[in-house]
Amino acid sequence: MGISNPSVSVSQRVNPGVGEGNEGSLSNQDPPQYFFPNKMGRIILLAMEDVMGRNGVNAILNLARLPDYIEAYPPNNFSKEFSFDDVGQLLQALDEMYGPRGGRGLARRAGHACFKFGVKDFGPMLGIADLTFRVLPLGMKLKVGFEVLAQTFNKFTDHLVSLREDEQYFYWMMERCGTCWGRKSDSPCCHLAVGILEEGLYWVSGGKSFYVEEVSCIATGDSTCTISIGKRPLD
Question: What is the spatial distance between Cα 145 and Cα 129, in angstroms, rounded to a whole number?
Fold first, then answer.
């Protein structure tokens, strides 16, 4: 994939929504259709535990009406059984419990932890932990890194990710997005995805910060969830 210019089993469970709020509410109560592999579901819950502690995760799972995962995280395999619906409910519950601002911050921090856990699992498999990759010029590392990450989501999950760029920005575009699945929101709410990209940029660049902002979101009625990423470090 290249970057072009812009022009019990989870699959058997039907989960109800968890409430209403300005930041997001859940609208999809149909049987799950789209999934993450169990390995990624496990990483999400481990990342939330890293940020909130086990008791915090248990409280969120109860509020999200996902008690089956308490003390029983998904197995560490590639079976696609952790549904988009479950992730949408988890992140909605985060906003319900901590409010939009608190939920946003926790979701981004969980995204940072997701990347740290994920790069240990997926990095050697994808080659992004190799010395050859790490010694590339920064611009090339960013481009290759985004391509590999997009390929990973498209291959292992039911996400539909494409990439665009112009002179100033890369654009991470999700036509099907598991981080806001089933949600309705007044503002973009894919904070977990933003956090993953932020930490990925920090890792690839050797500790630099970049502009990362979600500029459109399916949960607000847009056709894609689009995250803009500045090509040059802020510092």
Answer: 10
